[in-house]
Model the fold of this input.
Amino acid sequence: MTSKHPDTHRPKPGDRPSARAAGRSGATPPSPHPLADELRPGQSIELLKELHILTREGKLNQDSRRKLKQVYHLYQFIEKLLLELAQQVRAPNPTDDIRAYTSPAGLTLADHGAGKSYLGFILYDLFFRQQGLGHIYGIETRAELVEKSQALASRLGFERMSFLNLTVAESTESSRLPERIDVVTALHACDSATDDAIAFGLQKRARVMVLVPCCQAEVARVLSQHKALSLSRTPLAELWRHPLHTREMGSQITNVLRCLYLEACGYQVTVTELVGWEHSMKNELIIARYTGARKRASAERLRSLLAEFGLLSLLHTRFTSLPDNAVPPLLGEVV
Ligand SMILES: C[S@@+](CC[C@H](N)C(=O)[O-])C[C@H]1O[C@@H](n2cnc3c(N)ncnc32)[C@H](O)[C@@H]1O
Done:
């Protein structure tokens, strides 16, 4: 993406540097910004206004203070991972393994189901811009949001951000994205877009995936189809007999399957809660880091769960990168 503006933050009225940043410059320190304690050094006030985290007057209200806290909370998880990757990218003598996993662009990140791209913008402002490396791609199906994000990035001079009007699935094959993407994020990407983001990450050999799944209907639909059969087979099927429970169980099972799949494909997985994410019921944060150790036990567990829940049809649609997936179904398995 091209831009008239340099890719650096220029102070504007109401956009003074924080007290900490001013202290480092050696100049006579101006009076500290009223929000110095709430902001990160060098953070773009203009961006925060555009994202409605700060009011037009550059103030925080109670709601936006909470929003900012939530954004920082998620950012701190991702920052830690990005710092590790940036260190590896910059290492003078990277190991073969690291060289194989380092994309030529420095550090590439794809944010799927980007929406207004506030995650991408915050990551760029706080990390990519300040580190002076890498490129962020926002993938979003709503053309108007893509255009708005593109315009905002140009206005802010965030040159190493691109926004693509594609579905997650389309982006996997698109020549507008590089062959390798280091980091994949998908924050509340709708329904099975999270699964598509995982498929994207596997194809692009991502080193880190950060996923906050949204509601997912696919598994619940299959659970529903086989409900009668399951109820006659196991009392556990009571757990998804009522439609509301089918939906909840569907979501729960989906995320468990996603974690097992990632482990089977060589990722170390942690699951935690996005504390303080009050505006959404969906606050499960899945962080997957590539280690290369493909866990056979996870693959086996995944297959067993699919069989147990009557979900084996997903083996050939969702879990196509599972090692040994070519193995034909066992006698009696419903695929
Ligand atoms: C709930 S919003 C989340 C937006 C943003 N990630 C956030 O957390 O604020 C989900 C976004 O994903 C987009 N989306 C849904 N399915 C998609 C798909 N298959 N590919 C790309 N974008 C998709 C929607 O248009 C919407 O903007």
Residues 112-115, 118-119, 139-142, 145, 167-168, 187-190, 193, 196, 214 surround S-adenosylmethionine (CB under 6 Å). The first strand starts at residue 108 and ends at 112. The radius of gyration is 22 Å. DSSP finds twelve helices and seven strands in the chain.
